[in-house]
Amino acid sequence: GAGVSQSPSNKVTEKGKDVELRCDPISGHTALYWYRQSLGQGLEFLIYFQGNSAPDKSGLPSDRFSAERTGESVSTLTIQRTQQEDSAVYLCASSLIAGDLTDTQYFGPGTRLTVL
Amino acid sequence: KNEVEQSPQNLTAQEGEFITINCSYSVGISALHWLQQHPGGGIVSLFMLSSGKKKHGRLIATINIQEKHSSLHITASHPRDSAVYICAVLGLDSYGKLTFGQGTILTVHP
User: Fold this and answer.
1) What per-residue confidence (pLDDT) applies to A98?
2) In this complex, do A56 and B45 lie within 8 Å of one another by their Cβ atoms?
3) How far is B10 from chain A (nearest CA, A)?
4) CA–CA gap between residue B27 and residue A113 (Å, rounded)
5) What pLDDT sits at residue B91?
6) Residue A31 contacts by C-beta under 8 Å, 6 or more apart in sequence?
7) Best residue in B5, B29, B54, B97 to probe A by mutation, most A CBs within 10 Å?
8) CA A102, CA A90: separation in Å to the nearest integer?
9) Which of A65, A74, A87, B65 falls between 20 and 30 A from B77, CA-CA?
């Protein structure tokens, strides 16, 4: 079946503008995760959803970042008033159930965000 | 100090060599993942371990929970194995939140 998809694949924006990044998880996966990978840095957890709720928002770097999920499907990560340090690849992953030890996370291809 | 440390950071090998990548972590975990990231960025989950050893083709992953250490081995390495290998741990009660190592860049020359 189809894997995790993300759009856009690339986004170039000007400092101060808002951006929305979209993730379509694998159908039937109840858990959805957002990560980012800055240039030369490792992967960093941002937020995860179990269904439509986000029990752990501890990874969001500032209040400019928010995320929502509707219909236990699509999720949107919004960054307001973008800054140059927000430039990174934003990765989405989904899994059948969060925290299940037999659960594999399937990653999307990522959105490369560049803030000029 | 990072909660998850990988070594080496960079590894160069000749085709056919046996390769080992190490991962040490400092927190209690319920599982450990090994991920592969190819040039171009796509990430694939290779293994998830909570104990013992798993094998898939030429890849073997082991974990020692008491020593808080895991290894990823590649037998008969091939240039197509060239990628970044990332260790990630699922902390106790973290409900899916992975904490990642910095990754090991593997280059296998023909």
Assistant:
1) 67
2) no
3) 13
4) 32
5) 86
6) A48, A49, A50, A94, A95, A96, A97, A98, A99, A103, B96
7) B97
8) 25
9) B65
pLDDT tens column, B44-87: 999 999 999 999 999 999 999 999 999 999 999 999 999 999 99
H or E segment to which residue B54 belongs = strand B52-56
Nearest CA in chain B to A111: B41
* Spatial CB neighbours of B56, under 8 Å, sequence gap ≥ 6: B46, B47
Q: For chain A, give the percent of residues with pLDDT over 70.
A: 95
Distance from CA of B3 to the nearest CA of A (A): 12
> Residue A39 gets which letter from DSSP?
T
> Are the CB atoms for B53 and B61 separated by under 8 Å?
yes
Instruction: Indicate whether A40 pLDDT > 80.
Output: no
Q: Which residue has the higher pLDDT, A98 or A95?
A: A95
Cβ neighbours of B27 in A, within 8 Å: none
d(CA A94, CA A4): 7
Look up residue A92 and give its amino acid.
C
